[in-house]
Specification:
globular, single chain, 47% strand, two-stranded antiparallel sheet, 15 strands, disordered N terminus, 13-stranded antiparallel beta sheet, 255 residues
């Protein structure tokens, strides 16, 4: 009889556990080259989707490390000819930075928990070049959120060199975004952004005149590895969990 009582108590305890106890954060990575040609100057497009395996909101994201394929040369380009100071970006926004500091652009889709409900917003994201750190290129991401929360955020990523100055990774720390004062942080659901010259215009002075031009982007190798160009990303969350996602840019068709 005592064994039956113990079994019933154990089953009752299991039934009282929250449904989210076994939930996991899941990430899907998306990558692309524009134009998609070997040996060409290109714009790298990358994004990700975050979800919860049980269907609820994922834990707030606090870090992303994007691993670039071997052979991708981001050193020899004309991106980021000007430097934007983080304090200037915080105080004045993009108007305080030179157009020649811009590296890319994108958007984010987030959900804000309000009780049992959640609101959604798509803030614009701009990427500009910041002061170098330990000889590495620093990318400043500027997010301009307006509804349902008003938040202007600047967070920093660092391009860490790989072997032979090729490949490497872009490691970014993401600050927590409170939904309301002292309220729970928002959950990032998806991000899309670029790194490269697509839709970017720079300016220079030539013989006393201001001339516009398009900067040279990241160089794609002359040869494609078997299976395509592999990317991977490592995601960390405020609940202490982490996950990895992979994506491959296929080899372009031969002309």
């Amino acid at each position: 009889m005592s064994k039956i009582r113990l079994l019933c108590a154990a089953l009752l305890a299991c039934a009282c556990l929250p449904a989210s106890a076994g939930a996991a954060n899941v990430a899907v990575l998306h990558t692309s080259f524009t134009p998609d040609r070997l040996g060409a100057s290109t714009t790298i497009g990358f994004g990700f989707d975050i979800s919860n395996s049980e269907g609820g909101l994922p834990s707030p994201l606090v870090g992303v490390s994007l691993r670039l394929p071997p052979g991708i040369n981001y050193i020899k380009n004309t991106l980021g000819l000007a430097i934007c100071q983080p304090a200037t970006l915080v105080a004045q926004g993009l108007n305080g930075c030179s157009p020649n500091s811009r590296l890319g652009y994108g958007s984010a889709y987030v959900k804000v928990p309000f009780g049992q409900e959640s609101a959604e917003e798509i803030p614009d994201i701009e990427a500009v070049r910041g002061p170098s750190h330990n000889g590495n290129i620093v990318v400043l991401f500027y997010a301009d959120g307006r509804e349902p929360i008003y938040a202007k955020l600047v967070f920093q990523g660092e391009l860490v060199r790989g072997a032979g100055l090729l490949g490497g990774s872009l490691t970014t720390a993401i600050p927590l975004i409170p939904s309301i004062t002292n309220g729970p942080a928002v959950s990032i659901i998806s991000v899309k952004t670029t790194f490269g010259p697509q839709h970017l215009t720079y300016y220079e002075r030539v013989h006393g005149r201001t001339v516009s031009f398009h900067p040279q982007g990241v160089s794609v190798p002359e040869r494609c590895p078997r299976g395509g160009f592999p990317f991977s990303a490592y995601f960390t969350f405020v609940d202490g969990s982490s996950t990895t996602a992979r994506s491959t840019v296929p080899c372009p068709r031969r002309r």
